[in-house]
Amino acid sequence: MNIMDQMTHRGLAKLAREFGGLVHLRLGMRHAFVVSTPDVAREVLQVQDNLFSNRPATIAIQYLTYDRADMAFAHYGPFWRQMRKLCVMKLFSRKRAESWAAVREEVELLLSTAHASRGTPIDLGEAVFNLTMNITYRAAFGVRSEHGQQEFISILQEFSKLFGAFNLADFVPWLRWFDPQGINKRLVEARGSLDRFIDRIIDEHVTNPKPVDSLDTDMVDDMLTYLDTGDKNTNNQSAQVDDELQSSSFKLTRDNIKAIIMDVMFGGTETVASAIEWAMAELMKSPEDLKRVQQELAEVVGMDRKVHESDLDKLPFFMCAMKETLRLHPPIPLLLHETAEDCEVSGYHVPARSRVMINSYAIGRDPKAWEEADAFKPARFERAGAPDFKGSHFELIPFGSGRRSCPGMQLGLYALYLTVAQLLHCFEWELPNGMRPSELDMNDVFGLTAPRAVRLVAVPTPRLSCPCFRVLSLCFCFLYVNKSLRGLTIMDKELLCFGMCWLIKVDCVMSLKDMKQGETTLDVYTLD
Ligand code: HEM
């Protein structure tokens, strides 16, 4: 195995099988430690997490995050704490209705795309990536900025390449001045493009501010509230916002805003897309489990409407399948941390500024923690006391645990659950060209996330009964009743017709609700 293969989640898991839960490596001048068992993960993420909560950064990360002006790569400390508060309380909060609305509306569009391609293969991986890209883009910039999306995607792609590029200067610092791979030049160009793009959007938002109490603010609107314009009586809305952040005179620069937007784009796009694609692939590879999930959906939701948010809590087996997917395929397989001081782990000395990689992939497949660890078996989570992924069961940490755990978990899970539930409830899925489930390629590739190596292609066939068809059938019944049951009294006929109209009305109410995609109650939409 060459060094690059060894440094992936799979390569490091192999090393752990040979050398144990804590492995020490020397990378040039740097010490690196790999954590691969739940016990050692608990030591670094819970017992001593104050010492393990810094982030390592390469030259590319340092430059592209405006010198760690974001949250994801900021070291642990007062600045990070303020940024985290901003994200948890404002940007990723459930109260920001716009992000949740973006999820519902984009999922509806995905369903329409699948419906339009019924009976023919669609690249589900690509479709799901577009879905999550649209969701995060809309949550960040709002619907006003949709026209520049393609340009933004190109910028993100270049950022992603630069984040993942192997830069010799990271290991031999003096090479940085010679730049033998031409990386410095690319870094300057990439950040320049981002500056031009986001400055334009920030200017648009500054020129057309939304009212403070507006319900459809995007993340840029929310952050502009804290923009430091250098003027105490600025025309931003800070004076009117009375909250904890405001009272601590927290201020953001334009660089902070740009860097946080990139956190959201990188944190929220590929992670969610990869989880959705893996969930669909694992279920298609396991027809018995797929059947159970679809049966549960049919029983709880019924076959004449789509899934609503309130249904999700009533789908225990579906939830087990989602947990099992995140156990086998944590979207961020290696959690990158750095030590703030010298310390000790499992009796070994760990120097300050060591890079610590917590291998969430290896931990999720640790044979001591899991029976048949490599097999997809959602039923294992039906057992009482089975682990969950909220961060206190260290054998399952797809969102990390402790201070640096994922602040976007709620939004990410909502997008994952709603998309997979709708796709499985609204369609039957088959592999193309008679491919058998056992032939599905389940390899992944290593980057910031670990998506499927081969995109999932599948053929959708609509599964729900069409409301229009039901309305037509009821009309025919109505005519039949009127014509055939001549023996009935007027009263009986009226009663029958009343029953049918009630059914039609419910059906129409359902489809109106679907069109609104909201968690509305029946009394909001009546036909009266
Ligand atoms: C299925 C979806 C997701 C998964 C599995 C996931 C997983 C993770 C993991 C493992 C970490 C690092 C934890 C650590 O270092 O210990 C993380 C951090 C982070 N995630 Fe997520 N994430 C998801 C969705 C999202 C979404 C939707 C957003 C934003 C909208 C987001 C934003 C972030 C940010 C900003 C951080 C850095 C936190 C910090 O350093 O303090 N994530 N996520």
From TrEMBL:
<protein>
    <submittedName>
        <fullName>Cytochrome P450 84A1</fullName>
    </submittedName>
</protein>
<dbReference type="Pfam" id="PF00067">
    <property type="entry name" value="p450"/>
</dbReference>
<dbReference type="InterPro" id="IPR017972">
    <property type="entry name" value="Cyt_P450_CS"/>
</dbReference>
<dbReference type="GO" id="GO:0005506">
    <property type="term" value="F:iron ion binding"/>
</dbReference>
<keyword id="KW-0349">Heme</keyword>
<dbReference type="InterPro" id="IPR053062">
    <property type="entry name" value="CYP450_84A"/>
</dbReference>
<dbReference type="GO" id="GO:0004497">
    <property type="term" value="F:monooxygenase activity"/>
</dbReference>
<comment type="similarity">
    <text>Belongs to the cytochrome P450 family.</text>
</comment>
<dbReference type="InterPro" id="IPR002401">
    <property type="entry name" value="Cyt_P450_E_grp-I"/>
</dbReference>
<dbReference type="GO" id="GO:0016705">
    <property type="term" value="F:oxidoreductase activity, acting on paired donors, with incorporation or reduction of molecular oxygen"/>
</dbReference>
<dbReference type="InterPro" id="IPR001128">
    <property type="entry name" value="Cyt_P450"/>
</dbReference>
<keyword id="KW-0479">Metal-binding</keyword>
<dbReference type="GO" id="GO:0020037">
    <property type="term" value="F:heme binding"/>
</dbReference>
<keyword id="KW-0408">Iron</keyword>
<keyword id="KW-0560">Oxidoreductase</keyword>
<keyword id="KW-0503">Monooxygenase</keyword>
<keyword id="KW-0812">Transmembrane</keyword>
<dbReference type="InterPro" id="IPR036396">
    <property type="entry name" value="Cyt_P450_sf"/>
</dbReference>
<keyword id="KW-0472">Membrane</keyword>
<dbReference type="GO" id="GO:0016020">
    <property type="term" value="C:membrane"/>
</dbReference>
<feature type="binding site" description="axial binding residue">
    <location>
        <position position="406"/>
    </location>
    <ligand>
        <name>heme</name>
    </ligand>
</feature>
<keyword id="KW-1133">Transmembrane helix</keyword>
